[in-house]
Amino acid sequence: MLLSQDAYKSRAQSTAAILKRNEPVVYDELMTSSAPALNTAQRDVYRENGFLMLPDLFSADEVTGLYDEMQQMRGDFTATGRAEVIAEPGSGEVRSIFDVHKLNALFANLVRDPRVLNVAREILGSEVYIHQSRINYKPGFTGKEFYWHSDFETWHTEDGMPAMRALSCSILLTDNSDLNGPLMLIPGSHRHFISCLGETPEDNYKKSLKKQEAGVPDDFLLRYLSDLGGIKSCTGKAGSVVFFDCNTMHGSNGNITPYPRSNLFFVYNSVENQLQAPTDGLAPRPGYIAVRDDVNALEPEPFVMA
Amino acid sequence: MLLSQDAYKSRAQSTAAILKRNEPVVYDELMTSSAPALNTAQRDVYRENGFLMLPDLFSADEVTGLYDEMQQMRGDFTATGRAEVIAEPGSGEVRSIFDVHKLNALFANLVRDPRVLNVAREILGSEVYIHQSRINYKPGFTGKEFYWHSDFETWHTEDGMPAMRALSCSILLTDNSDLNGPLMLIPGSHRHFISCLGETPEDNYKKSLKKQEAGVPDDFLLRYLSDLGGIKSCTGKAGSVVFFDCNTMHGSNGNITPYPRSNLFFVYNSVENQLQAPTDGLAPRPGYIAVRDDVNALEPEPFVMA
């Protein structure tokens, strides 16, 4: 990919910029032979806003099982020094664990569940694979903010993801209220590419997963997008699921309440949108952040709690 | 005040503790000769929850004038190096300006306005004076959290305030939404004194106004209070006012939205509750944080925007 042909060049200019999105948000091809996972109204909401919440997609029993598994993983992985484990700035508590769909059998099954997988296949109009998976714990009392960003800006620049044909699926494993730092999204922001200032430091991911410093959108453009589309927080009960486009601007405030805000994130990427070389001669990020070696189409298989 | 007689000893024990409140929350004596500022239902809400919100107490014109004045002060005081100006950790933006009722004529008038002053006089059942005043800017994008605390815990320990007979009046100068880090309070927490661990470092206020490290309540007790009373955020339009008891546990999350959450705070203390020596032989904090030299009863005088 030559820079001169790059429609989504970022971190290379002397000024921030706002660029038009080229790709569709929702593809027309339906990949599922059975009843579609989304109805027309839901597809329209996703196309318009760049995200969609499906309340109570997982049952209370499933949530209990998944939550326990997540806590078990947290215990098992604390103080292992593994690269997949990211600590909160300050408190050192576990902030995120990456690659959970490879590290854990239950989550490996979950990414194939038709309730989530088929939504991804329908929206992206193709077979899909997991580009990245993680748990974000956001602990009570000490959970820190995630600043505004477009995932695609990073995945394009640092991972060489060619086009906006990926989405995140966030499964709420605790209740997400207005108070404990819920995901905030800017409706409509997915239609604009915000090109950011600044060069990417070497091994940027080692810092950026705690606190983003490259790929940070400009204040003026954030204000513009927010004034245009508003800001919507994704609050809901555990078991609800939010799907959002790879280019939807999002972030979340910190959490001083005693109640953790813990969510699973699966990033589905179209098999037709596989990673190329990162821009600007950057070294590819490790496989636990950006999968390159396992890009076969996921086969739907209903998730069954053991 | 001897420690052995101190009903609200804090930062001196080897374990955190929860103690019963001794003083009334709302006093029976009505200090106003004219129509009372609060009706019975409002007094009951304040007594029960430890706080009360009065929506739209100030008009849109008054809000505009006060907001402009606040911004003017911010500009005038940035980079002056004055002690009253507290910077945000990290960004260095103005987080708070203290003593605004002495530094600014408009705010000096505002503290006497019957709409706020008479509420304080009625609840505290006596004449009152200003113990502390400040603007909290909480800027957009970079506004950091204020961690949970009881004001009284600090004012008692560091300022020698004898009893729980003071309140804060917070005038919203921007809209406070669920998204921009609104004040959160724990209903009912004002009935319990949370004695905190740890000794007070010398000149603690120099750090604690940015980030509190002494007087931090225990996680377990915060969880207990929250489970008992819930957590309520004080959202509302600019011009609304929140009154809360000096011992109501409160805090706020950070603010990454583009929209600042700026509020005025006036702390009214009963003239019968004047400061004594701080506990543990601490030096008194400076007058811009804890007034000792101007404790005459405030005379009500309607606020008129110039």
TrEMBL record, chains A, B:
Catalytic activity: L-ectoine + 2-oxoglutarate + O2 = 5-hydroxyectoine + succinate + CO2
UniProt entry keywords in alphabetical sequence: Dioxygenase, Iron, Metal-binding, Oxidoreductase
One Pfam family recorded for the sequence: PhyH
InterPro entries, A to Z: EctD (IPR012774), Phytyl_CoA_dOase-like (IPR008775)
Cofactor: Fe(2+)
Superkingdom to which the source organism belongs: Bacteria
Entry protein name: Ectoine hydroxylase
Native source species: Actimicrobium antarcticum
Phylogenetic classification of the source organism: Bacteria, Pseudomonadati, Pseudomonadota, Betaproteobacteria, Burkholderiales
